[in-house]
Amino acid sequence: MKNHYFQMDDRALWSELRSGSLIALEVIYRRYYSLLLNYGMKCTPDDDMVRDCIQELFVKLAKSSNLSDTEYPRSYLLKSLRNMINDKSTSARSQVECFSFNDEIFSDIMDDDSFEKRHYKIFCVNGKYGIQV
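^ that's the sequence the OP posted. Answer follows.
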C-alpha cells in the first residue's frame, strides 16, 4: 500500500494529505527533506534552526484540518519554510538579552543612604556592566 504513495505525483499526494493521510505526509517529507534543508541553509547558516523549522512545518501539516489546495506543493513547502525561518530570525533578533543582576554590582550602591545618589550610581555603572540608559 505504501508503494502506491511513492508512485503518486505531488498534487495527488497533497490531495491525500489534505484528506488526512499520514502516509502521504511521510512520502512528502522523504521527497522534500533534502531540498528543504539545502534551501533553508541558504536562508540562514543556523543548521539547528533550519532543522527545527522543517520539523515544525511537517508537524503543522500533520495537525492542519484546513490545509489549502495548491497546484505546486513544492513551492508551498519552500515558501512556508522561508516564512518560518524569517519569523524565527526576526524574533531572535528582537529579543532583548536579559541582564542578571548580582550583589557585587549593587554592593557599593547600597552603602550610600541617599536615594538620589543610589539612583545616579545605578545608571553610572553602564560602562562597567553593560547597562545602558
